[in-house]
Amino acid sequence: MKKTLSFALALLCLTSSTLFAQQPSPTPTDPPKSNAPPEDDAEGVVKIGTSLVQIDAVVTDGSGKIIRNLKAEDFEISENGKRQDITNFSFVEVAPTLDAGPQPAATDPNAPVTARKLKPDEVRRTIVIVVDDLGIGVGDVEFIRRSLVQFVEKQMGPNDLVSIIRTSSGSGTLQQLTNNRQFLLAGIRKIYPRDFARDFNQTFFSAFPVLSNAIKSLQKVPGRKSIIFVSDGLTLNEGFFPVGGIPLESTGDSRLERFRQLVDQANRSSVVINTFHSQAQKSLNYDSATTRPYQFDRFGNQIPFRPNQPVEELTTIRQTANANQDGLLALAKETGGIPIRNTNDFSAGFQKILNDQSGYYLIGYSPDEEIFKAEKNGLHRYRSISVKVKRSGLTVRSRKGFRAVTDAELTRTKTPETRLVEALASPFKTSDLKVQLTSLFVNENGPDGKPNAIIRSLLFYDASDLTFQDDGDGWMKAEVGLFAMIFDDNGGLVERVGRTQNIRLRGKALADARKNGLVYTLDIPVRKAGAYQIRAAVRDNASQKIGSASQYIETPRLEKDRLSLSGLVLLGLESKAAPNAAPQLVISEAPSASPAVREFVRGGGLSISCFVYNPVVHPQTRQPSIKAQIKLFREGKEIYSGKEFQVPFSADGTIELNRAITLAESLEPGEYVALVTVTDLNQNDSKRKTARQWLDFTIVGSANR
Q: How far apart are CA 641 and CA 626, in angstroms?
């Protein structure tokens, strides 16, 4: 058993290579070009074409409750002031409210926090929270941070996809949509105030690129999506103040053009932008700050106010607050969102926005084809849309316009590289090719003999899905693009990889590759401890088929006497009987039971292995003393708890944890999590004596079938 299980630990000590079917190391090349047609867009909520313009609308009563029983004749829709006949009409029920139906069973508070792998039809709400932290004050940031923590811990549902983005991270550093609360909370901890004065007019040059990228990340997500933009101000020119809507003619103001482009992008992507004014908790009334009898000069000396100065200052504060909100109001109004302002109840504002996603109307009409013709300068006019509800006492919110260019015309510009970027950014797996990603933390000695912390990613792809072409004399060749992006919990891009792998095989090697698949190993140095997300994609360059996968991983703080663990290596085991010998557990020959794929059968064995780092050596025995325990969880509930056992150590000081358990026949197929907890019996510091590591896996069937 020891010899068999040591194979798992060997995987943690690999150099960059290809497993199962050996290939030369790939060399970086430019991605090949292709004339393959782009993938059709997923069915959208908002549609803009010569035969149909369709938008979404939400109708509420005086208490804010969504009205669901209206008919087409209860609405009027106009384009540029001209009444249109409604040709398409329906109500979309997103999901029952959170308090309806049976509640899920309580989860174990000690269970590992993992992300559920949702399918597109399982998603209830999709929310991107953009925090404009480049100018928010110290008090506001702390207030927002607490509110976001409450949202993630109490208001976010298991079928919600959420991303939290900071404008200070830049436009190209988006966190992926996830339901992993632990990763979201790590991102919230990165929100802190910036130390410079804010110019609200500069928001267009900081927040708008981030909002635009957030919208792009939502384009391929089905249904109606929501962005919550939290900012302390966004000032627009008086000429397109939201009360009158944005002008249809060009004004020459670059901010207006960028605003109009962003609104059109959001509307075409079925994204609603809700806005939250982060200065709302500040008083705009008379208080101790505006009625005190003195003020301070720049030297800190008290000087009396001149007559009426407190009133004038309060008036200025109110005018500034209103001006700073005009852009936020416009963004919400033009995309059918909700502006939250003049309140210090952030959670209630969040709940109002969340409730808004429970259902909406789809209203469509046949437009005049002439409106889609470009002007002489090649530009397309902006068209306004007005939706009214005839019943009294009801309020309708909908998108206010679009640029007169069809969706089909915009999608013609897509390239294979565009599809690849979409696959890397999508919260769902792209499954033209079967791809699986397993990322592990390991601390190993480098060429200089010093330990190096790395993330080792095993990228598996099914070779039977590849397009092999005849290369003469029985050889077959395929060309594969391998791509990966790694982000830290600050939203920063740590590493980007793009390589081409030329595969040339024949005979048994080709048959083995098609049967067992291929695995590419990628090592990324870890500069600091924290949470990371790895997104990877594989592309068959001949057919342009793409497969993608993603994973979250936490790396520990490697400090002296602070106990920590490497990533877990999971291997499937099966029972085999040698001639004239008792049965023994050996590594399963099924490629799906490998550490890269992690698909196992009930009734079989599961090997769990890892390294233990930085134990305390007893001053008298000169030896470490480590105990460990293994547990299995399913949907947050503990389903197996093993007995504690002593972890052995080698003469060179290496501590390897190897353990095999049997997966009971009673286990249902589905997703599981293996948790290893180790305790340093020589350590007195409670914060340093325990370490945990976990990894998800899948049970796919039974060994006896």
A: 18
